[in-house]
Amino acid sequence: MATALKPAAITTAERQAREQLAACYRIFAHLGWDELIYNHISLRVPGEDNAFLINPFTLMYEEVTASNLVKIDIDGNKLAESPYPVNRAGFVQHSLFHRLLPDVHCIIHTHTTAGMAIASIEEGFQATDFYSSMFAGQIAYHDFEGVTIHPEEGARLIADLGDKRIMILRNHGLLVMGKTLPEAFQTYFFLERACAIQIATRQAGTPLRVPDAVVAAHQRDVLTAAPEGMRGLAEFAAMTRLIDRKDKSWRD
Ligand SMILES: [Zn+2]
């Protein structure tokens, strides 16, 4: 028998996490990176051992607010009352990474056109330009095994990921993990841009080429661009101001 859940007693840390994640969903909607009512961005609730926030299933990203995000445990069970279901099949992959990788606090998964296109190309993602050079040697791949992961696929996902925190799910989409939400957002932003540029470049119909020295120099410079813990903060704040100018209802 299901136990009745109490209305959530929300800490300041949880409230801040809710606002940050709701803003992120609205930013993704603004950028056209949402997919009907599907896909996920999940965020660990600070200061709690086993609590995560995720989008209410059946709502579009543009309908997500700080208060309608659903608080769940690692198995996708609701921790607080919510009229919305959770797409547990979609969360199962996120939960695997949240469970096994303590440094992973935020996970973004999308089915964007550019991401899915790159995920379906034999050569995969290539370092061909300013943005994609940022990701040289940092991307893991996992072969397509179907819609939902089976228990034995979990071990293969973790093995394929290794020490990387960006994964291209072949024939499926992009997966980005971060120590913070702004860091994951920034990584995702440039990855998505790189995928879109790479598709456009391929449409030119000529072979792709980038000198190894350029990639190496870019990698070196990127690593010094922002101190640890600060990555993505200014970019995420700028995008939050932008969505605030459109519609502040995400703060509800
Ligand atoms: Zn997916």
Automatic annotation (TrEMBL):
<comment type="similarity">
    <text>Belongs to the aldolase class II family.</text>
</comment>
<dbReference type="Pfam" id="PF00596">
    <property type="entry name" value="Aldolase_II"/>
</dbReference>
<protein>
    <submittedName>
        <fullName>Class II aldolase/adducin family protein</fullName>
    </submittedName>
</protein>
<dbReference type="GO" id="GO:0005856">
    <property type="term" value="C:cytoskeleton"/>
</dbReference>
<dbReference type="InterPro" id="IPR051017">
    <property type="entry name" value="Aldolase-II_Adducin_sf"/>
</dbReference>
<dbReference type="InterPro" id="IPR001303">
    <property type="entry name" value="Aldolase_II/adducin_N"/>
</dbReference>
<dbReference type="GO" id="GO:0051015">
    <property type="term" value="F:actin filament binding"/>
</dbReference>
<dbReference type="InterPro" id="IPR036409">
    <property type="entry name" value="Aldolase_II/adducin_N_sf"/>
</dbReference>
<feature type="domain" description="Class II aldolase/adducin N-terminal">
    <location>
        <begin position="19"/>
        <end position="199"/>
    </location>
</feature>
